[in-house]
Specification:
heterodimer, A: 191 residues, alpha+beta, Alpha-D-Glucose-1,6-Bisphosphate, Chain A, domain 4, 7 helices, 37% helix, globular, B: alpha+beta, Aldehyde Oxidoreductase, domain 4, Aldehyde Oxidoreductase, domain 3, 3 domains, 6-stranded mixed beta sheet, 19 helices
C-alpha cells in the first residue's frame, strides 16, 4: 500500500528531528509499542502489539535508516513479522520543511503487507493505519510542543550536519512506519 | 374376497404422493427444529481437536519450523509436520485430477494459508493457542498470480516436486508450470469457417475465481479403533464411497476396515467433493493417539484453502452469416488451477464438460482448447453448483451470443431463436461430439418471452434510453436473456470415471413385511431433499406411499456403492437406479400376485398400487398385501423376502435446459444494480416434486446473483488472498435477493427410466449469464461490448464512468 500525507508540528525542524531520534519519545508515541531499541546509529528493533479487526498480534521488526540529511530528510526501510498474523515490509521517505516557527513533516510510505493482515482487506488496514498515525501524531505533538526543552535542544546542537556523519541520525523508522499508515503501523510494529 | 369399493386410480395415486406431488420435505422436521446431526455435532469420548498452522506467504521456502512453544501449551498433545508424515508416505496425497497435493507443506509453501503443521490438542482453544505459537521461518520467493504469465520463460518454478515430470496425467506438459492441454473439435475446419464468415466477434470472457462457500465448512471426525483395526471417519463428504476407496489406496488400510459416514451436510455445492489435508491429518492423528480426532475448518480457511471454483479465462470467437446464422465457434481457455491440480472432474475430462460450449445452438463446426496452469493460489477447480465446467461454458457462449447480436444490431433473443437446435433435430450430435438427448428450445423461449412481455420491455428500454439522454433519469434499464443447455448426470461408465471408479450409481430396496420400506442409495444429500424425493420415485414404481419409505445414505457400511452427489447426477443416475430397483421389486411382486390370484403372471396388469387381473379389476392384490405374502407364504419357485438392488449405468447424460430473462435498472451514479424482475423457465424433464424444484431454483438463482454481482476470490501481486472472509466475500441475504418467478416446460429424457433430467444446478448455469447480460445490456447503446464479472457497485460505476455517463 502507499500513503502520502503531512503533519504540521509547532516546533523547529531540529527539534522535530531530534525527537524522532529519541527512542524514549518514540516509545511513548507508537501505539502498542512494548520495546524500542537502538542497535546502532542507523538500526532499531521494536516490539509492537497491534490489533487490526479480529487480528491481534505482537510484531517484532527491525528498521534501517539511510539517506540521512539532518534535519531535512531521511529514508527508512524495514520489515517485521507477527507470526500467523502476517508480516510487512516497506519503507518511507520523510521530509521536514520549515513553516514559519513550525515544521511540516511530509511522509511518503510504501509498504507491502502479507498473511492474515492482508487477507482482511484494505478497508481495515487503511482505517487502522489512519487511526494509528493519528494517535502517534497527537502524542508526538503533545510531547514535542510541550517539552521544547533543554534535552531536545542539546541533542540537536550536537547533531552533525554533514551528510556522512553517523551521529544523531537514528530517526525512528518505527515511527514513520506507524505514521505512514496502518500498514505502516503494522509494518512498523515489527520494525 | 376384496372390498367392492375400490377408490379411483387417481385418488389412490394421489395418496401415494409419488411423481409430481409437492410433498413437504420430510427432513425439514429436524432441520427447522435445530435437530440436524452435522459433523461438528459429533462428540466422542476422549476426542481431541486438530487445527492447522498455515502459510503467511503465497510462495516461500520453509527454512525451519519450530514447534517447541506450541508443544509447551497446556493441552497440546502433538504437532504434525511433513517430516512426521514422510515415513508413512502421507506427506503428499493423490488428487482427483491425477496430480498430487502436499498434505503438509514439504519444504515449500505454494499458496497463502497452505497447511504447514497440524496441532492436536485436548480442546480447540488449546489447539488454536498452539497454532499461534508455531514459528515458521520463510525465505520468500516471487509469487506467480497472473495465469497469463505462468508459462513465461522467466516464470517462477512452482512445483519442484514434479519439475522433471513433463508427462502429466493428461498428456505432455509444455512448461514447468503447465498442467495439461485438452482439446475437442475440428480446429482447421473452424478456422476456415471463421475466416469465411461475414461477421466475426472475439472477446476475452473471464469467469473469476469464486468459492462455493457452503454455510457449514468442511470437517471430519476420525476414529481409529485399535482393538478391531477399523478406521471410521465421519465427514462432510459429497462422495463417501469414493473417499473410502481413496483412503484405502493411500493408507493401505483394507477397504473393509474403513467406514466413511456423511452425516447431515450443511450445503456442499462442490466444495465437499475433494479430499483435503484435514481428513488425512485427523486420521493420522487418531491412528497415532488411539483416540478420535476432530478437524473443523473456520470460514476463512474454507474460503481460502479448500476447493475454489471457476477461474477460467475464455477467449471466444464466433462467426455468422450476414443474416445471423452462426457458422463456427472457437474457444481457447486458460484455466488457473492454483498450486495443485485438485479439480474434481471425470478422469478423461480435465476440463470437465467444457465442450458443451456450443450451447443450445446448431453450430456446424467448432473447436475448443484448454490449457491448465499452476499459480500460487489455493487448489481446487470444483463445479460450484454446476456440472463439470458447464457453467463456464454456458457463460462464455451466452455472452458471445449477446456480443454477436450487438455487433449485428440484432435482438439477442431473435438471434438465439434463429440458431436454436430445432425440436425435430433431437437426438442431436453437437460439433464437439455430445449427443443431446432431447429438447424443445423454441417452445421454451417463446413461452418465456411471452410471459415477461419481452417486446414491451424492449420498447420500454428505448424510452428509458431516450429519457436518460434527455437527463430525465439517472438509471439505465438492461434486459438480460440467457438460454442454457446443461449436460448433467455423469455418467456412462464407458467414458466417465473418477480415479478409475465408474460413475454409475445404486439403490437397494428392502420391503418390510407390513408394506413399508427402506431404500439405500449411493448418493448423499447436502440439502437437496433426497429423503423426500427418492420415496416419491419409488411410490410411483412400487405402489407404496412415499411416507412409508425411509431413505438411508451416506454410510459406506450400509449403503450400496455409488459415486455421490454433485454435478446434478443424483436424479439422473441414482434416481434411475431407484426406479430400476423398484421395477425389480414389482416384477417379483407380480409373480407372487399370480400365485395368490391363481392366474398366469402375464394375465396381470399393474394399477397404481396393485396388480389386478386383466379385464377383472375387482380381482387384485395390493402391494401391501404382496409384501406380507412375500414373508409369510411358501410360494413354489420363489424365494422368500422382497428386496432388490440396482446398479445403474446411464446410457447417456441428460440435457436440462431453460430460458431466463432478467430486467435490471442500473444507477449510473452509484453503480447499484437493482434487479427489477427475474423470470426462470426450467425444463428438467419429468418433475418429481415441483415444490422442491422451485426451492432448488430459488437457491441456485440466489447463488447466481452472488456470483454475477459480487463473489470473487482475488489475489494481490504478493500472493495474498483477498476476499477470504465474509466481510469481503459476498453472500446475499434476503435483503439483497429479488423475487424469483419460476416456470417450466416438460420435455422428458427419452433414455431415463422416469424421464427426469436433474435441476439443482440449472439456475446457477443459466442465472449467471442472465444477470451479466442484463448489466452489459444496460450500457450496450453507449458502445460497451463486454465488462467482466463480478458486477459489483464499484465495477459497474467504473464502467459508467469509462463510458462518460457518471454525474
Amino acid at each position: 500500500m502507499e500513503l502520502n500525507a503531512e503533519q504540521k508540528i509547532a516546533a523547529t525542524r531540529e527539534q522535530v528531528f531530534a525527537a524522532l531520534n529519541d527512542p524514549a519519545i518514540l516509545m511513548q508515541c507508537i501505539p502498542g509499542c512494548e520495546s524500542l531499541e537502538k542497535e546502532s546509529d542507523t538500526e532499531m528493533t521494536a516490539t509492537v502489539v497491534l490489533r487490526v479487526g479480529p487480528v491481534k498480534a505482537k510484531f517484532k521488526g527491525r528498521v534501517e535508516l539511510s539517506n540521512l540529511v539532518p534535519p531535512e530528510s531521511y529514508s527508512i526501510r524495514g520489515e517485521g513479522a507477527g507470526g500467523p498474523a502476517g508480516y510487512a515490509k516497506g519503507g518511507a521517505d520523510i521530509k521536514l520543511l520549515e513553516d514559519g516557527d513550525g515544521t511540516i513533516l511530509q511522509y511518503d510510505v510504501k509498504a507491502d503487507v502479507g498473511g492474515k493482515l492482508a487477507q482482511l482487506g484494505g478497508r481495515l488496514i487503511d482505517s487502522t493505519a489512519k487511526n494509528l498515525s493519528g494517535k502517534f501524531f497527537a502524542k508526538f505533538c503533545e510531547i514535542v510542543e510541550a517539552d521544547l526543552g533543554v534535552d531536545t535542544q542539546a541533542t540537536i546542537s550536537e547533531a552533525p550536519v554533514a551528510a556522512d556523519s553517523k551521529a544523531g541520525r537514528s530517526l525512528s523508522p518505527l515511527i514513520w512506519v506507524v505514521l505512514g499508515a496502518g500498514v505502516l503501523a503494522l509494518y512498523f510494529a515489527f520494525s | 374376497m376384496n372390498d367392492q369399493t375400490i377408490p379411483p386410480a387417481a385418488e389412490r395415486a394421489a395418496a401415494l404422493q409419488g411423481l409430481g406431488s409437492s410433498r413437504k420435505r420430510v427432513e425439514d422436521a429436524r432441520f427447522t427444529q435445530g435437530k440436524g446431526n452435522y459433523v461438528d455435532d459429533i462428540k466422542l469420548p476422549g476426542m481431541l481437536f486438530g487445527d492447522f498452522a498455515r502459510s503467511s506467504h503465497g510462495h516461500a521456502r520453509i527454512k525451519s519450523i519450530n514447534k517447541e512453544a506450541a508443544l509447551a501449551v497446556p493441552g497440546v498433545i502433538a504437532v504434525l509436520t511433513a517430516e512426521d508424515l514422510k515415513p508413512l508416505n502421507l506427506h503428499y496425497m493423490p488428487t482427483l485430477a491425477g496430480d498430487v497435493q502436499a498434505v503438509l507443506a514439504d519444504e515449500k509453501v505454494l499458496f497463502q494459508n497452505q497447511e504447514i503443521a497440524f496441532v492436536v490438542a485436548e480442546d480447540r482453544y488449546a489447539a488454536a493457542d498452539g497454532v499461534e505459537l508455531i514459528e515458521v521461518e520463510y525465505e520468500e520467493l516471487p509469487a506467480l498470480v497472473d495465469p497469463f504469465k505462468a508459462m513465461d520463460d522467466d516464470a517462477p518454478l512452482l512445483r519442484e516436486d514434479i519439475k522433471d515430470k513433463m508427462d502429466g496425467a493428461h498428456g505432455p506438459r509444455k512448461h514447468y508450470n503447465h498442467i495439461f492441454y485438452w482439446e475437442e473439435g475440428d480446429k482447421e475446419g473452424t478456422d476456415k469457417a471463421l475466416a469465411e464468415s461475414d461477421v466475426v466477434v472475439e472477446e476475452l470472457i473471464t469467469y473469476p475465481r469464486c468459492h462455493p462457500s457452503p454455510i457449514e465448512t468442511c470437517g471430519c471426525v476420525a476414529s481409529m479403533d485399535k482393538i478391531n483395526g477399523k478406521l471410521t471417519i465421519w465427514g462432510t463428504f459429497q462422495a463417501p464411497h469414493a473417499v473410502r476407496t481413496v483412503a484405502s489406496l493411500i493408507t493401505n488400510i483394507a477397504e473393509h476396515n474403513i467406514r466413511i459416514v456423511s452425516p447431515d451436510i450443511g450445503g456442499g455445492f462442490g466444495n465437499k467433493v475433494g479430499v483435503y489435508p484435514g481428513y488425512i491429518c485427523a486420521a493420522v492423528a487418531s491412528i497415532v493417539t488411539g483416540v478420535p480426532v476432530k478437524w473443523i475448518e473456520d470460514k476463512i480457511e474454507n474460503l481460502t484453502a479448500t476447493a475454489f471454483a471457476r477461474d477460467y479465462h475464455m477467449t471466444g470467437k464466433i462467426g455468422a452469416t450476414k443474416d445471423g446464422k452462426i457458422t463456427a465457434l472457437s474457444c481457447n481457455v486458460l484455466a488457473d488451477h492454483g498450486a495443485f491440480d485438485a479439480c474434481a472432474d471425470p478422469t478423461q475430462f480435465p476440463a470437465g464438460f467444457f465442450s458443451i460450449c456450443t450451447g443450445s445452438y446448431d453450430i456446424p463446426v467448432a473447436h475448443c482448447g484448454v490449457d491448465g496452469v499452476y499459480t500460487n493460489k489455493a487448489p481446487g477447480g470444483v463445479a460450484y453448483r454446476c456440472s463439470f465446467r458447464v457453467t463456464e461454458a454456458a457463460y462464455m457462449i451466452e455472452r458471445m451470443i449477446d456480443i454477436l447480436a450487438r455487433k449485428m444490431d440484432m435482438d439477442p433473443a431473435e438471434l438465439r431463436m434463429k440458431n436454436f437446435i430445432k425440436k425435430e433435430q433431437f437426438p442431436y450430435t453437437s460439433a464437439l461430439g455430445w449427443e443431446y438427448d432431447s429438447g424443445d428450445y423454441h417452445t421454451a423461449m417463446e413461452k418465456a418471452m411471452e410471459t415477461v412481455g419481452y417486446k414491451a420491455l424492449r420498447a420500454e428500454q428505448v424510452e428509458n434510453r431516450a429519457a436518460f439522454a434527455r437527463g430525465e433519469t439517472r438509471a439505465l434499464m438492461g434486459v438480460g436473456v440467457a438460454f442454457f443447455t446443461e449436460i448433467v448426470g455423469a455418467g456412462p461408465v464407458k467414458n466417465c470415471d473418477i480415479l478409475g471408479l465408474g460413475m454409475f450409481d445404486s439403490c437397494e430396496i428392502r420391503i418390510h413385511p407390513t408394506g413399508s420400506a427402506i431404500a439405500r442409495v449411493g448418493t448423499i444429500s447436502q440439502g437437496q431433499g433426497h429423503a423426500t424425493t427418492f420415496p416419491q420415485i419409488l411410490a410411483s414404481e412400487i405402489g407404496l406411499p412415499a411416507e412409508d419409505i425411509t431413505v438411508e445414505e451416506g454410510d459406506t457400511d450400509t449403503a450400496p456403492y455409488g459415486l455421490g452427489t454433485y454435478g446434478s447426477r443424483t436424479t439422473p443416475v441414482a434416481g434411475a437406479a431407484a426406479a430400476m430397483a423398484g421395477r425389480k421389486i414389482r416384477a417379483k411382486a407380480q409373480m407372487i400376485a399370480a400365485y395368490l390370484l391363481e392366474v398366469h403372471d402375464g394375465d396381470l396388469e399393474w394399477d397404481v398400487d396393485r396388480f389386478q387381473v386383466k379385464g377383472n379389476p375387482e380381482k387384485f392384490k395390493t402391494m401391501k398385501e404382496l409384501a406380507f405374502a412375500a414373508y409369510s407364504q411358501a410360494i413354489p419357485g420363489i424365494e422368500p423376502g422382497l428386496e432388490a438392488v440396482s446398479y445403474y449405468d446411464p446410457p447417456n447424460m441428460t440435457y436440462p435446459f431453460g430460458a431466463y430473462i432478467c430486467v435490471v435498472d442500473v444507477d449510473v451514479d452509484t453503480g447499484v444494480v437493482d434487479v427489477r424482475r427475474f423470470y426462470a423457465l426450467d425444463d428438467c424433464g419429468t418433475r418429481i416434486n415441483p415444490m422442491i424444484i422451485e426451492g432448488q431454483v430459488h437457491g441456485g438463482l440466489t447463488e447466481a446473483l452472488a456470483i454475477a454481482m459480487g463473489q470473487e476470490i482475488s489475489y494481490d501481486a504478493m500472493g495474498n488472498v483477498k476476499g477470504g472472509s465474509l466481510m469481503d466475500y459476498y453472500l446475499p441475504t434476503a435483503v439483497e435477493t429479488p423475487v424469483w418467478e419460476t416456470d417450466h416446460t416438460v420435455t422428458p429424457s427419452p433414455h431415463h427410466p422416469i424421464g427426469a433430467k436433474g435441476v439443482g444446478e440449472s439456475p446457477n448455469v443459466g442465472g449467471v449469464p442472465a444477470f451479466s447480460n442484463a448489466v452489459n445490456d444496460a450500457f450496450a447503446h453507449l458502445g460497451l461490448t463486454h465488462t467482466q464479472m463480478p458486477h459489483d457497485h464499484w465495477r459497474v460505476w467504473q464502467t459508467a464512468q469509462r463510458l462518460g455517463v457518471t454525474g
